[in-house]
Amino acid sequence: MEKISVGARDKIELLTNNMKNRLIGKDDVIRKVITVLLAGGHVLLEDVPGVGKTSLARALSDSLSCSFSRIQCTPDTMPSDITGLSIYHMEKGEFEVLPGPIVNQIVLADEINRTSPKTQASLLEAMEERQVTIDGNTIPIPEPFMVIGTQNPMEMAGTYPLPEAQLDRFMMKLSVGYPAEESSVQIASEFLNGSLHAKTEQVLDAEDIISMKTEVNGVEIHKDLVDYAVKVIEETRKHHSIKCGASTRALLDLLRASQARAYIEGRDYCIPLDIMETAKDVLPHRMILSAEAKMNKMTQETVILQILNNHPVPQ
Prior knowledge:
Blueprint: H1 6-20, H2 27-39, E1 43-46, H3 53-63, E2 64-65, E3 68-72, H4 80-83, E4 84-89, E5 94-99, E6 106-110, H5 117-120, H6 124-129, E7 131-134, E8 137-140, E9 146-151, H7 164-167, E10 172-174, H8 181-193, E11 204-205, H9 206-217, H10 223-238, E12 242-244, H11 248-264, H12 272-282, E13 288-289, H13 291-295, H14 300-310
Helix pairs in contact: 1-2, 1-3, 2-11, 9-11, 10-11, 11-12
């Protein structure tokens, strides 16, 4: 593969800066969301209400000339409200398939854990196979395709935990977090002068993203780094604090996201840091801790750090 073009780096910076204008003081999470986009994955944003989860999703969608839909998940949301349905026309004597909001390029599933498990499951086919089936009719979803799910912490009222199969389809689970004090001052100032919710301009189109995704697929990962990634995944399956380790899909997501991270950094090859840093966001939400680990107040994040620290990277 040739060196990453200056044009590609300019496009990434253009997209990043455009989103920064909408979401102040969250440069790191913005970069990670763009990483998931270029890696062809989906992202889950979990945090308390009101810190900018939906604003981050809208900042991305408004920066791209792509079709967008928002699904506001509630306890009474039905699967057909997401996938679509068939309607019988008496005059024509036939059924007409009406695709749902999932058949768009950027899809925001807002407060996804406030809807029932049955409705949550309606996203599985689309997220994995890039298609939706309605009464036997298969409808492809246009590229680029990305689901951005937002959810509130599980201890909050009115939430349904996402099943493991659903969590495993999200490449990364990220937290927006509270803004720093100086960022809060800037947010307050822009709110008072009316510029906080200014319209975000479209700076890239679908062809730009598809082109960059193709280049990401060509980023080189040395065999030693692939072996290292496999060892990390294997350790999640053997670690005494983990009841259920990372899947094969998790391994593939780890490698692709590492390629995207290297690409964003302007490299056409991965380095050990790409694997290590990406693993912290790709793996934790896919693992189930043992009862003993939960009693000891351990988290998936701390276990991943232990695994990374116990496995030195190849030199």
